[in-house]
Design a protein that fits this description.
The protein is an alpha/beta fold and about 450 residues long. The protein has helices at about 15-25, 50-60, 65-85, 90-100, 105-125, 145-155, 185-195, 230-240, 250-255, 315-325, 345, 350-360, 390-400, 425-435, and strands at about 1-5, 30-35, 130, 165, 170, 180, 200-205, 225-230, 260-265, 270-275, 290-305, 335-345, 365-380, 405-410, 415-420.
């Protein structure tokens, strides 16, 4: 059995619903379907969830939301009519609107209705059973998922001769009230369903054919990654790649269930497979899995003669940052010098206090701050134990005239991270991609 999750772009209109139906009917193993709220149909369109948030904001401040609510209702009724479904949505929308006007609906319940109506429509279109997420996704009082109750509840739901469609994004608190995940939470719902039912694979259908090796806004037509481990995915995500909602990975990873990212608009593309490990390499000659990064970091660099013989220097620096609630991303260092790499946005409000406290507590010989630094990461499990990889990367950057400001690499050799000036950020990513992927 396969659990499939379809994102907002796959739910945008009747045409997309038809594509989803073809995908589901092409494989009898696809018996569990998780859906998002309707997304944008075109560039200037609105996501349904955004409209529902806007409805709540209107009512909160005593402004009627009739026009906005009508946009939501008309979208779903339009999809229903184009698909030729006999489903009385008007009554449900009228009841919901009455509760909104009387302020008897919570913010979280209201914004969850996009997924709810998507699932009702998709279940009718597929002739599957509709299963409300409120009947099986259970939250603890602190807002975390009660995994045991959630898994048990879904297993106990039975259907005969049919698959099921369930909404993503929400569940219930112990008191029965609706509670939502953060935005993108439908990915988590799909992962929970796959883990609960011990699925063969969790398919996450979206509008791209897998995870791309680089940002398409920087590199023209980057290739999709065929295979990636969960550790590599974590590195790519941490270093800036917008991949998946982090919470969506844990349930399937814990059960060792493969996660397959697919494209609803190109269903024959294999997409990206994510697993704990791979016995064989899909492309043994390629050692870089992906290239990513972020701009606008600051480096605090200090040096002190004999630092390597003094206990606690780095501890003192980190303690100062902890006092100000600042998290450190990287700590490159030398014998008598140490640096900490921090997002500029986090450091800027505390900069002068931090520098003053480090000066007083460490008494360094030099203390400098470098701003406008971009961090670029080359990630790949196949880099480990292959000699000369770092040299090839730095040689390619040097030939392109890109100055390296910082280097950091962990002992597992899963990534090579380096800092460049903000102005060289895009060039550095293009150089790496052209040198090691497009060669």
């Amino acid at each position: 059995m396969k659990v499939t999750k379809f994102g907002g772009s796959s739910m945008a209109d009747a045409g997309q619903y038809r594509k989803v139906k073809e995908i589901i009917e092409s494989d009898p193993a696809r018996r569990v379907v998780v859906v998002s709220a309707a997304g944008k149909r075109f560039q200037d369109d609105h996501k349904i969830t955004d409209l529902l948030y806007l409805c709540y904001s209107h009512t909160k401040y005593g402004v009627r939301c009739d026009a906005v609510f009508d946009m939501v209702a008309s979208r779903y009724c339009e999809i229903r009519d184009e698909l030729g479904l006999e489903l009385d949505l008007e009554t449900e929308f009228a009841q919901l609107k009455e509760r909104i006007d009387k302020k008897k609906v919570t913010r979280e319940e209201l914004v969850s209705r996009g997924e709810y109506y998507s699932a009702k429509l998709m279940a009718a279109f597929l002739d599957f059973q509709f299963v409300d997420a409120a009947d099986w996704v259970k939250f603890n009082l602190d807002g975390t998922v009660d995994m045991e109750q959630t898994y048990q509840a879904l297993r106990e739901l039975s259907w005969i001769g049919k698959g099921i469609v369930t909404p993503g994004f929400y569940g219930v608190m112990p008191d029965g009230s609706i509670h939502t995940f953060s935005r993108g939470g439908s990915d988590i719902t799909g992962s929970l369903a796959a883990a609960a039912l011990d699925a063969e694979v969790y398919e996450n259908w979206t509008d791209v054919s897998g995870i791309l090796m680089a940002d398409p806004r920087i590199v023209d037509n980057p290739q999709a990654i065929a295979e990636v481990t969960y550790d590599e995915l974590r590195e790519l995500s941490y270093s800036g790649a917008q991949v998946l909602h982090e919470g969506s990975i844990f349930p399937v990873r814990e059960k060792n269930i493969p996660l397959n990212i697919r494209n609803t608009n190109a269903p024959n593309d294999p997409g990206t497979i994510i697993k704990e490990r791979f016995d064989e390499c899909h492309d043994p000659d390629r050692f870089i899995t992906g290239i990513t990064g972020m701009k606008d970091f600051s480096i605090i660099a200090l040096s002190k003669k004999g630092m390597s013989n003094q206990v606690g220097v780095l501890h003192k620096v980190l303690t100062v940052l902890v006092r100000h609630g600042i998290s450190v991303d990287y700590v490159p260092n030398g014998i008598d010098n140490v640096s900490v790499v921090i997002p500029t946005e986090a450091l800027a409000p505390h900069l002068y206090n931090v520098l003053s406290e480090i000066q007083n507590e460490v008494e360094p010989d030099t203390l400098d701050v470098y701003d406008k630094i971009a961090v670029v990461a080359a990630v790949g499990r196949k880099m480990a134990f292959r000699p000369g990889i770092s040299g090839k990367i730095f040689a390619a950057l040097g030939e392109a005239g890109i100055n390296i400001r910082m280097i950091n690499q962990g002992p597992d050799e899963l990534n090579i991270i380096f800092g460049v000036d903000n102005r060289d950020f895009k060039s550095a990513i293009r150089v790496l991609y052209d040198s090691f992927v497009n060669k």
